[in-house]
Amino acid sequence: MKISRFLMTSFAAIGLSISANAADLRVGLKSEPSSIDPHYHNLGPNNGFATHIFGTLVGSDENQQHYPDLAVSWKPINDTTWEFKLRKGVKWHDGSAFSADDVMFTVERAQNVPNSPSSFVTYLKGKTFKKIDSHTIHVVTAKPYPLMPNDLSTVKIISAKAGNGASTEDYNSGKATVGTGPYKFVEWVPGDRIVLERNASYHGAKAAFDKVTFKPIKAGPARISALLAGDVDFIDNVPPLDVARLKTEENVQLSSGPSNRVIYLHMDQFRENSPHITAKDGSPIKNPLMDVRVRKAISLSINRDAIVSRVMEGIAVKAGQLLPAGFHGVSENMKPDPYDTKMAKKLMAEAGYPDGFKMTIHGPNDRYINDAKIAEALAQMLNRVGIDASVETMPKAVYFKRASRGGPNKSPEFSFMLLGWGAGSGEASSPLKALLHTYDKAKGMGAANRGRHTDAKVDALIQKALATVDADARGKLLAEATEKAVGENYGVIPMHYQVNTWAAKKGYSYLPRTDERTIVTGLSKN
Amino acid sequence: MTAFILRRSLQSIVVLFIMSLIVFVGVNLVGDPVDMLINPEADQAEIDRVIRDLGLDRPVSEQYWYFVLNAFQGDLGRSFIFGEPALKLIVQRMPATMELALVSLLMAVVFGIPLGIYAGLKPTSKISKTIMAGSILGFSMPTFWVGIILIMFFSVHLGWLPSTGRGDVATYFGVTSSAFTLDGLSHIFLPAFNLALFKLSSVIRLARAGTREVILQDYIKFARAKGLAESRVVRIHLLKNIMIPVITIIGLEFGSLIAFSTVTETVFAWPGMGKLIIDSIYNLDRPVVVAYLMIIVVIFVMLNLIVDILYSVLDPRVRIKGVS
Amino acid sequence: MGASANKQSFDLPASGLRKFWLDFSESPTAVIALFVFLTILFIAIFAPWVSPSNPYDLTSVDIMNSRLPPGSEDFSGNFYILGTDGAGRDMLSAIFYGLRVSLGVGALSGLVALILGASIGLSAAYFGGRFETIMMRIVDIQLSFPSILMALIILAAFGKGVEKTIIALILVQWAYYARAARASALVEKNKEYVEAAHCLALGNRRIILSHIAPNCMAPLIVVGTLQTAHAISLEATLSFLGLGLPITEPSLGLLIGNGFEYMYSGDFWISIFPGVALLITIVSINLVGDQLRDMFNPRLQK
Question: Which CATH number fits domain B86-314: 3.40.930.10, 3.10.129.10, 1.10.3720.10, 3.30.1490.20?
């Protein structure tokens, strides 16, 4: 086996791809989960990985639409109570039967994980869970809570029996890692590999592979060369740069799809003296970004097509609002702004800045696809309309802290920020609430509203939507809020939606997910 | 002799303390891990809880005190990212790094010494000049760049060797290593070669310099005058006399290999300690950064202590004068 | 090459530029290397005047020109002999400016490290006693740690940035200079001219600076050249790892790092050319330093 593997590596280059065992899969992952414990850290890679082993009450498919997983049905039975009917006949990986007790245990445990850097409390607090019978649960809230299924699609259900008294380390070692998902945990060698095997008694569609090995390979080029060399069969996060070349490779098949993440710009709208904006000669100036005409001018001076084609290699979709079409709460009436430097200069002159001004664009350099390059391209474009723009990028570890709290009195430090937002809930209330609602720390509103955009009408629309249980009505409210906050106020300037690309060896295609996750159940033979 | 060892050990402990202080205080001043880790949609209560759990609300001096206290019990803190003890994370990855460093060292020595001796014995031959030129190149090329070129050429272009990761392991005599399997060897070859290249140059130059000096010594002339075969002269007289400086340097070079493995591990995705530290620096996983640096410092201090002791054993002058 | 058969002692290199040149030019490679290095130095210093364009002038750089292969021309008629990078910057200009940063950082940190290290080394040798013992212990301890580790510790502790990288490089290098200076000063200390200076009751500072230091320059220069090359290489590695200089004015290391991802899609020039430039720079400095070292090594005198 070991010798033949060495030979195979050579053969792969000649275009033959022979796999040792056709029912085994090796995946090259960009981000290794930081833990196998599904409640330890509410982080994309952890959550995506956990889906292989654990189930949730409400499943979220490749378009973040809900489907029945461990709950077969759910509905609000009154204004403040949702009823979930659980699936019967489900077995845990250790053979015991799944019931409402497991859900009750999960809900309790998920809110009390020691040392959790970011827990699931956000999705569970304020909700009272009641066990009605062995397969029925009621969830009660103080006010109507239309997004209940969205919240419950995030918390992985663990076994009351296996998880009793188990710590995060027990999950990492496999001792307590018992789930209801299509794959069972075998081992985790941190930094090297995670191995799963098929769960023969899975309640859903049979898993396609006997054994799956995940190998974390952080660097894009290394991941691609691993695929080309035949070391792995499937990789995620193909950098846009390499897509064109991989398209010409015969033994590689690409799959790409838009994500729920919008790349946008936040602008300082609350300070007359913005820290990184001055007149061209360096003297202080009244913050031009407070004028909606300037913000609109900036949006018009961005050549989104050029960014999509040159910076993102065509692997992006230009944006006019916060989520692409098809998501709930998206407005039909909004389109991406055209590229119109003439109009931009006119608006700036009208606003009283005919000679432009000087500004620093801040952004991360290791968080979003090509983030630093986008910022650089942006600076070029702003320079063309008279804004003397320079760029400063930094690692996300430093960027987000400063962007949120780095200024005096823990206010946002920057004036003009490149950011991204992925709507975890799969609908528009997520970005609206976090980015455009007036900042209210106590209520958890505007948590990422670093430009401090504020508009009472928008706030009212958002709050009403959050309490509206009827999906259509809620959708309309969210669309209206977006039209006002983004279309009229330019509270943020949307640039483009990220598109994610996966690559597999020939014969396999991946169903792209808007939540950007890599879940092997989406990989199928074609 | 014992006084010497004692004195050195004491100094080592002082070094440890000073390093721990520098690293700890410094790391705590940079960035805020909370922003990295926490879900942006979390509210203030959640943020406060995380800060409390990670102990970030206590003053730095207090954090350091607890750190030292725990360190004596073998607890070097808990990773913010993984939730596991930092020491455990590092120890899990140590075998991979050690393996890489050892194979590299072996390569550097096995190839370097003969080449260096040749270059020293026949300094004007074309081959020697090529060797020396090559060694300057090896010395000058930044490791990461060579690594990239190696991957491009041998993995992608020729497909002879895998580009990332560690191969299968096997256990012999209680030692588990990927170097014992063919698959493991194919995975370790490129990164070890990459790492070794830098040291290869040093070993060649050392061996050459040593050879050039020793060859002028009287006892070599005497051995030749006695009519001994040249190969015997080289093997017995020359080799033994250049080995002392070469070996001591190699001992220190080993430590340097471990340090430089951070780069190679990053390029080849080799699951060792070096990769862990780079990631942890990026992610502001302070406990892991501090724990790693502490462990490395301990390794180095021990290595140096051993080399110092070896020196004093081999070179009586050091022992007698009691040079500290 | 007419190598003079009668070579005198070598502890006073400044005593004859001509003799210096004769010895140095014994190695043709070193001479070539020296000229290459001087050219690079010239380019680095005069980069803004020598470069075809300013790669960091955002009004002239256009994203639409990105990733043009070497030898292409764009719509405005600009010729890119080495192609452009991902943001549309001319590679040749980027390399020239990058050389500037790399050499600047290397030279600056080297110079400060030299002054710092030499002062400490000279004083330690001169004053001797406790001071010398302590200082040399510190030097030994620091030298026992590989440079990249020291740099990692410093950058991890104090964060990234231009000043911090330079400080890290200085802290990594000073010990080499200190050791070389001390070794050489120890030899000088016992010579007659120092004794004579003592008799004249000259102040300590004057003796160290005016009498001993000039005679120690030789080994320091050797260390200097080799260390500068090392510093440049180290800075490139740190930038590649993302821990060094920020992107506003990239060094060669950063250019290579940024270009790494383009290599797989076939745009090799964005990473290879800066890499070659880095290589040439480091190799030339090393060759020069090597020859200098051989010249000054008394044990190699035949």
Answer: 1.10.3720.10
Q: Give the nearest chain A residue to B266 (CA atoms).
A: A219
Contacts of A359 (CB under 8 A, 6+ apart): A276, A277, A382, A387, A388, A389, A390, A415, A416
Residue with the bigger pLDDT between C125 and A176: it is A176
Type of residue found at C209? L
Residue C92 within any structural domain of the chain: no
Within 8 A of C257 by CB-CB distance, chain B residues are 144
Distance CA A418, CA A396 (A): 12
Is C280's Cβ below 8 Å from some Cβ in B?
A: no
- How far are the Cα atoms of A29, A417, B272, C75 from residue A45, in angstroms, in the given order? 9, 25, 21, 44
Does C148 reach chain B within 8 Å, measured CB to CB? yes
Mean confidence (pLDDT) of chain B:
77
Cβ–Cβ < 8 Å for B165, B269: yes
- Choose between C201 and B103: higher pLDDT: B103
Best-predicted range by mean pLDDT among C99-113, C194-208, C212-226? C99-113
- Asked whether residue C183 is domain-assigned, the answer is yes
Q: Quick check: is C89 in a domain? A: no
pLDDT computed for residue A6 by the predictor? 47
Find, among C213, C232, C230, C224, the residue nearest to C120 by Cα: C213
Q: Which amino acid is at A11?
A: F
Q: Do A37 and B82 touch (CB under 8 A)?
A: no
Residue B253 to chain A, least CA–CA distance (Å): 26
Single-letter amino acid code for the residue at B30: V
Residue of B nearest to A365 (CA): B282
Q: How many structural domains does chain C have? A: 1
Task: Report the chain B residue with the minimal C-alpha distance to residue A367.
Answer: B36
C62-92: per-residue pLDDT in tens? 877 888 888 888 777 778 888 888 778 888 9
CB neighbour class for C257 (10 Å; exposed up to 12, middle 13-18, buried from 19): buried
* CATH code, domain with C254: 1.10.3720.10
pLDDT score of B127: 84
Q: Retrieve residue B68's tokens.
A: 């030292």
Contacts of C86 in chain A (CB under 8 A): 241, 311, 373
Per-residue pLDDT tens over the stretch A245-258: 888 888 899 999 98
pLDDT digits (tens, 9 = 90+) for A39-50: 988 888 999 999
**Mean pLDDT calculated for residue range A307-324:** 91
Q: Name chain A contacts of C88, Cβ cutoff 8 Å.
A: 380
Report the residue from A9, A11, A397 with minimal CB separation from B162. A9
Distance from C-alpha of A434 to C-alpha of B39, rounded to nearest angstrom: 12
What per-residue confidence (pLDDT) applies to A475?
92
* A245:C64 CB<8 A: no
How close, in Å, is residue C159 to chain B by CA atoms? 6
C143 within some domain? yes
Provide the number of CB pairs (under 8 Å) joining chain B to chain C: 110
Is the ipTM higher than 0.90? The answer is no
| CB–CB contact B271 A218 (8 Å) | no
Query: Are residues C286 and B148, on separate chains, in Cβ contact within 8 Å?
Result: no
Evaluate whether A51 touches A502 at the Cβ level (below 8 Å): no
Angstrom distance (rounded) from CA C299 to CA C290: 15
Q: Do A391 and C262 touch (CB under 8 A)?
A: no
If you measure CA to CA, which chain C residue comes closest to A378?
C63
CA-wise closest residue to A212 among A201, A224, A222, A199: A199
β-strand pairing of A24-29 with A234-235? parallel
Q: Which residue has the tokens 């062995």?
A: A134
Bridge partners (DSSP) of residue A361 are: A391
Cβ distance of A9 and B159 shorter than 8 Å: yes
Which residue range(s) make up the domain with C155? 101-302
Q: Which residues pair with A66 in a beta bridge?
A: A60
